[in-house]
Amino acid sequence: DAGVIQSPRHEVTEMGQEVTLRCKPISGHDYLFWYRQTMMRGLELLIYFNNNVPIDDSGMPEDRFSAKMPNASFSTLKIQPSEPRDSAVYFCASRRTVSTDTQYFGPGTRLTVL
Amino acid sequence: GENVEQHPSTLSVQEGDSAVIKCTYSDSASNYFPWYKQELGKRPQLIIDIRSNVGEKKDQRIAVTLNKTAKHFSLHITETQPEDSAVYFCAASIDGGSQGNLIFGKGTKLSVKP
């Protein structure tokens, strides 16, 4: 099992540019979560999907953020246009519906917006 | 919705001492309580979890206790070692059903001094 895969691991971009973060959940997992982590705000849930359908996007900070899950093995989080305050580590996590399981996190993408 | 409070935010102990981190939750329907450890620059990783049908669970030097009546749960680390230094997050959820997301506490930074 390869675990949750995220790319890129590091992204440096300039303010105003579009940023796309990618996630491949663990095979067989039907929940996918996007989190943002900063020193000030801790670990924040942005959005999560169940069977590729967005269930709760109330954590998405504003319209500049969007997320998609076109199939069971791929999701993207897009920021357009990016701003310096978006600098953070973005984690993707996945889990199965089976009640004995829990969330497994990917390695994260460290985003720096200059 | 669910709210999870975690204390203390920072904790410093001498190697060999015990460390205790406490969390409270607000939704009495919550029945699954995992703890994650996040080392510097790494992803959060599950270290132990407990479900509401048990009051205590142990795994070597780590134990978690749950008091459903008071709606609080605690992480206990005995004989602490420098490699226990990390940020620890508690979380709560209603396991199974339509709610797949964890509600995280703000984290506790544990420092173990040799």
Describe this protein's structure.
- The complex is a heterodimer of chains A (114) and B (114).
- Chain A is globular and about 40 Å long.
- Chain A is 0% helix and 54% strand.
- In chain A, strands 2, 4, 5, 6, 9, 10 and 11 form a seven-stranded mixed beta sheet that branches.
- The termini of chain A are far apart.
- Chain A has strands spanning 5-7, 10-13, 19-24, 31-38, 42-50, 53-56, 65-71, 74-79, 88-95, 104-105, 109-113.
- Chain B is built from no helices and eleven strands.
- In chain B, the strands form two sheets. In chain B, strands 2, 4, 5, 9, 10 and 11 form a six-stranded mixed beta sheet that branches.
- Chain B is globular, with a radius of gyration of 14 Å.
- The model of chain B has no long low-confidence stretch (mean pLDDT 92).
- The chains are: A mainly beta (114), B mainly beta (114).
- Chain A binds chain B through residues 31, 33, 42-43, 45, 48, 50, 55-56, 91, 95, 97, 99, 102-108, and chain B through 32, 34, 36, 42-46, 49, 89, 95-96, 98, 100-102, 104, 106-107.
List the helices and strands and how they pair.
The complex is a heterodimer of chains A (114) and B (114).
Chain A: E1 5-7, E2 10-13, E3 19-24, E4 31-38, E5 42-50, E6 53-56, E7 65-71, E8 74-79, E9 88-95, E10 104-105, E11 109-113
Parallel strand pairs in A: 2-11
Antiparallel strand pairs in A: 1-3, 3-8, 4-5, 4-9, 5-6, 7-8, 9-10, 9-11
Chain B: E1 4-7, E2 10-14, E3 19-25, E4 32-38, E5 45-51, E6 56-59, E7 62-67, E8 72-77, E9 86-92, E10 103-104, E11 108-113
Distinctive features:
A: four-stranded antiparallel β-sheet, B: 114 residues, mainly beta
Brief account:
The complex is a heterodimer of chains A (114) and B (114). With 114 residues, chain A is mostly beta strands.
